[in-house]
């Protein structure tokens, strides 16, 4: 039948124009028109949001007679910081200059408010956020805590809560003291030996060994202010670090007095394997202390300025990114979840359960990672305006690769399977919705175009132009002209074939009528039919390639998911291995110190702890292999 010839003619003419595009389908290289389209879509990995950095401190944790609550304005500021954070907290006795030290670290004169009287000035925990001076992709969060031993409070439990919270929130904890290091100053640090009374690591195990807390505790820096004596051991001047280790040595004996002497020292050594000490002279004379925040460095004691430079350099260079479970970098947003979880735990039970808090943080982080990656994917699709299926497929590949990267970067990998499946399901749904909309708009455009192109043909039919000998050949020429113009203008339109098929079905009856009135079978028609017979095989091959391309896109998404999962697991496996190796080495150093002190019992304990962390280091490889294969199972089940 002639109608079949016309339909085949249309398909062949359209597909021949697209043949070069199909040959490149599925390759990584982009088509010329696709490159421009993708550039216009701007599929940069993440939309950068400028964080809200601060000129002055704001209250983060409010302390209302021992009842702790969170300042929502502070949380808004933290939530805008979508980059890893280094958290430096300072604690110590009331009225010892903690706020001034943080102001100098921040490079500000009045970031934290200073008290100029003997009355304690800071309540709760105050926060100052600013760009990290050395790590351009990090933010620095400074936390100033209310002082211990304020007679106006008279509540040691309140001090314990603030101290414990600052320990758990920070990546570096600064203990600020005034005067020379002695036993009375160490007694103020009794909070350290009581940390386990306020912290429970897991729900199932209420009592943990001291060294098990190392995973969750920060590095320790002791700052000794207003030194009046040289730091000496046996009349020999030593460094601040050497003096600190000397002060932390344990006494031999088992009586109550000796045990009391050793308790805080042992706790510091157990909980903080990485520790540092700095000693500062008084920055100025007593009469100028009220004006301290207005004084220039030239007006301060040069020795204080020099020592502070060493201190600030150490904090900027050595303070680690805040992490959870040794591998998950904490952003400002994740820090919000940490604070909320810890405060909720403290207010409900008066004891932190770290496992519960981390579980809540992981859930919030995974949900936020999912929303962030889907938002990136959705916005990329919304910007797409091309009519080409090839362009759309290439864009979807790029968007999926980068959305998956965003998700894995921001999620807690070992608890992410549910959210990973949601990412795959939702991006698939976005693709289907985009394709549906693309078909609808393409159908509308093609319908308008064919209606305009066939006007002259319809007018000729009405005037009887083709109802004569040779009219059928002329009709076929005009029809072919319409098809040629249409395919030229709809080269990338997904609904071009559908509209052409509808058009030919409309013209079938008319075509047969014209042929019956024309007794001359034109030579041109014979040539067209011969050409169609030769090209039908091409049509079948092109249709098969299109089906294969759809299958290839599915395979690409599966391969990309598995590949990135493997990379992410490998990175985290390396990081957790390095984390445990660092702790193991510090335990080894502590073991050697105890041996030098003749403390064989403590040295043996540290040797056991060193073995434990060596085992955890070695087991981390198989642990992350298990995580990887569990996630692979979810991925394969989704694509099967």
Automatic annotation (TrEMBL):
Keywords: GTP-binding, Hydrolase, Nucleotide-binding, Signal. It holds the Pfam family GBP_C. Residues 82-320 form the GB1/RHD3-type G domain. The keyword GTP-binding applies. The keyword Hydrolase applies. One of its GO terms (molecular function) is GTP binding. Residues 589-624 are annotated as: Disordered. InterPro entries: G_GB1_RHD3_dom, Guanylate-bd/ATL_C, Guanylate-bd_C_sf, Guanylate-bd_N, P-loop_NTPase. PANTHER family: GUANYLATE BINDING PROTEIN. Belongs to the TRAFAC class dynamin-like GTPase superfamily. GB1/RHD3 GTPase family. This is GBP1 protein. It comes from Polypterus senegalus.
